[in-house]
Predict the structure.
Amino acid sequence: MNETVFVIPLWADLLAVGLGGVQGAMFASGFQGQRRLDLLGVAIMGLLLGMGGGLIRDLMIGVPPATLQSNWYLVTASGAALVGMLLAEVLHRVNTVIVVLDAVVIGMFGAFGTSKALVLGLPAVPAIFIGVCAAVGGSILRDVIMGLPVAIMHVGSLYAVAAGVGCATVAVAASFGAPMVPAAIAGIVVTAVIRVLAVIFDLSLPEQRRLHRRKVAAETGTITIVKPPAAE
Amino acid sequence: MNETVFVIPLWADLLAVGLGGVQGAMFASGFQGQRRLDLLGVAIMGLLLGMGGGLIRDLMIGVPPATLQSNWYLVTASGAALVGMLLAEVLHRVNTVIVVLDAVVIGMFGAFGTSKALVLGLPAVPAIFIGVCAAVGGSILRDVIMGLPVAIMHVGSLYAVAAGVGCATVAVAASFGAPMVPAAIAGIVVTAVIRVLAVIFDLSLPEQRRLHRRKVAAETGTITIVKPPAAE
Amino acid sequence: MNETVFVIPLWADLLAVGLGGVQGAMFASGFQGQRRLDLLGVAIMGLLLGMGGGLIRDLMIGVPPATLQSNWYLVTASGAALVGMLLAEVLHRVNTVIVVLDAVVIGMFGAFGTSKALVLGLPAVPAIFIGVCAAVGGSILRDVIMGLPVAIMHVGSLYAVAAGVGCATVAVAASFGAPMVPAAIAGIVVTAVIRVLAVIFDLSLPEQRRLHRRKVAAETGTITIVKPPAAE
């Protein structure tokens, strides 16, 4: 674990976990009415989005999950979720904050995932893959546990693509001998910029399409099953 | 693995796995009509509830799953599931049995999870978290694989809270230097008592609310999608 | 990892991964209309079916995932998925190809899973269990992430039973001192033959029943919730 701590400073790791926790709370605040989540539900959402990506990363690398080696990760993720809950109404009004927060968080989880995999000796392609899984894994866990359609499969590719390009940046920089810290920062910036530009320039409209589809579903009150595939 | 065997005697571990297997079978027997599960389906439910929690615990701790290091776990879980299937009709009539069984099982999985994490050197907060995940993990796996709403998110917090208080009891006792065996027993008792009291005194009515919601859904025949969250 | 490479030659492992990737693409091509998957979605399906089983196997054994130790697995699975996508229309017309492909793939994943578990010292029962999980694990991941009913729970037991008998063949042969390579080949053949015979002789009609149920669901446009189980 020494190399890992060397690569990802604890404060940076906790920052990503905390921002993920805030996101989880904001997601939870979107549930209204009968399915309104209680305090524990909000905390669980915070844990899933704050720690889920790192957990998936470490399982895939094959090391004990770093987020469970210290008390701080759980305290940070659940604390951030409860703070995020209190701020949710304010934050929802500032759409720019949400978009940038989201872009930075997937950038951080992706870059940390790829960096850690590379430092532990994995080849470039799996290292990039692990970074992407770390970036989107928390939201997959969230959707599966909440019984929602998995966003990454339906929202549009640009989410995962932004993470992938950022993680590839880290891997390429590392292969040219760049130190890990600037390589990771470059990866975060690349992912965040692609993601923010995609939202600004409406590339493939991932958010809108997703909201639209869900609104339609909410109106009709049903989930339409897809045409059955012809083969297993 | 030596310390683990030292902490959790094999018979106690297998008892928890077997009781979980019985629960799985009783759950499976609730499926009637078109979705009635066959023998293999019953066995799978038994494996998920009997071994799922331990599997999640060991993945989170980062050790090879104890339930797969010996032939006994799989034999016990699937055997208990088939016995449970035969007894399901009788057991369902004795509601007290179900409630107490359920309370003891989550207590055991929680206490064993936290004990094992502590013995392997994890700090208190992650150790408690791992215990809670071990206690409720089997039912999460079950719900996800059966395509049901994840009970722990909708039934009410008291389920996870009972597990959490029991696991915290283990961690606090251990931090005061108590030996692991009495600490674990204390944790099991605390969780089971909280859970049983909650059902007796109707605290937050977790079972009824859950059954009610599912009945409503069964009548209308649809799953209503929640209002879409405004943010990722 | 040396023993593993010794047991499962890289080309055989990549063949299984590649065939799984093709299956993923053919599955993805079944989604039409609004839920039609884009290129990335097809690649994700290929990764899930090509690498999901091996990932689950290695997590259960407690070793770092072999599919992430080399660049080849990810390249093979996603490449095969894209090739499979181009060939999907042709392949769908040749039903025999689909059935045999499917039978051979579950045979390979099952036999490799059991072989690897045995070589790494696990007892026979968990080794067989891990083989079955490796054989069906990719399709479970696929169904959970796509929000579909988990096929293995609803299609009929014969799928898992075929994998189980093949994996047991490997374990029994190994316990009689047979070398791993012929034992694994025997396991693959047993699984594939059972599966193909089951389809030919219409045993329990797993495909038809599954397709029928999904067609009904597609017509009514709703998911019907099962009768609520009476116990947790």
Q: What stands out?
A: Confidence is low (pLDDT under 50) at residues 1-5, 205-232 of chain C. Residues 151 and 187 of chain C are 23 Å apart (CA to CA). Chain C is about 75% helix and 0% strand.
